[in-house]
Amino acid sequence: MQRRIPLLLTCTIAACAPVLGLVIAVSPGASAATSASASSAAAYAHALAAARAAIRHLSIGQHATDHAVGHSSRSRGLTQVQSTNWAGYADTSSTFSTVTGSWSEPAVTCGSRGTDAVFWVGIDGFTSGSVEQDGTFAECSGGNAFYFTWWEMFPTNAIQVVGSSVVPGDSITSSVVRSGTSYTLKVTDSTHPANSFSTTQSCSNCANSSAEWIAEAPSSGSVLPLANFHSWTLSGATVNSGVISSFPDDEITMVDNRGRVKAQPGSLNGGGNGFSVTWVRST
Asked: pTM here?
């Protein structure tokens, strides 16, 4: 995608609906209960299908110039950056081949304004138009929160959704590993392995100029309201043969068009390989 302040992905999501046991009605009460269960299942399936359809039209992962990024003076060896769709950290000033990170999937509260929240690690997108990224996606639909695993790869920059049974608290590890022009994108959900995947893609003209660990508000023409994820804590981050603090890094705060904070990253931990992002506002 074009270089914009972190925008990220376009997804295809696998549908999932609960399996209901067959209930034989033996009384009016039993019949009513069965009908209510069927109605609830149908509503859930409809909301999930709507979430899947919505994700197909979203963009994720680009740090775009039309989203007004602002750099301030260096402090503590890093650069403070503002973005309208990213919060987290990005490493620069090197050529990157490996990026990893782990987290416990946050629980999203679906309010009247917040719609989506995406968590990912990747190479590129911060200083280039190429993106090689993967992670988890929380989508609010019909008042419910649905959670997915996904990946995105330049040049199509289309979100590919793999798992649709992620739940809050799942233990997630995400990585992108490059060898020459070959990229292995991998997400492991050790709590619900059906959401895990590994795919190898090729890119001969990707920039490999940045590495990122990001909480994002995806876009659909413009940046969408950020769903309330409360807090996202990334740990065990590696990049090339080091950690986040091994390279010049940008601490990225998500703000609205008036400069009000939407999601605030904390400082790196003592090992330089983890941090938390706190949700502040949807828009």
From this structure: 0.80
Omega cis (within 30) before 168:
no
What is the DSSP code string of 156-199? T---EE------TT-EEEEEEEEETTEEEEEEEESSSGGG-EEE
C-alpha–C-alpha distance, residues 172 and 104, integer Å: 6
C-alpha 3/C-alpha 1 separation (Å) is 6
List the alpha helices (DSSP H) in the chain.
28-55
Q: What is the pLDDT of residues 104-160, one digit of tens each?
A: 999 999 987 768 999 999 999 998 989 999 999 999 887 889 999 999 999 988 889
CATH of the domain at 262: 2.60.120.700
Range of the domain at 162: 4-16+23-279
Please check whether residue 188 is in contact with residue 173, taking contact to mean a CB–CB distance below 8 angstroms.
Answer: yes
- Count of structural domains, the chain: 1
Give SS3 for 124: coil
Buried b (16+ CB within 10 A) or exposed e, 168-202: eebebbbbbbbeeeebbbbbbbebbeebbbeeebe
Residue pair 264/87 in contact (Cβ under 8 Å)? The answer is yes
Q: With 70 as the cut, is the pLDDT of residue 14 above it? A: no
| Contact present, 249 and 191 (Cβ < 8 Å) | no
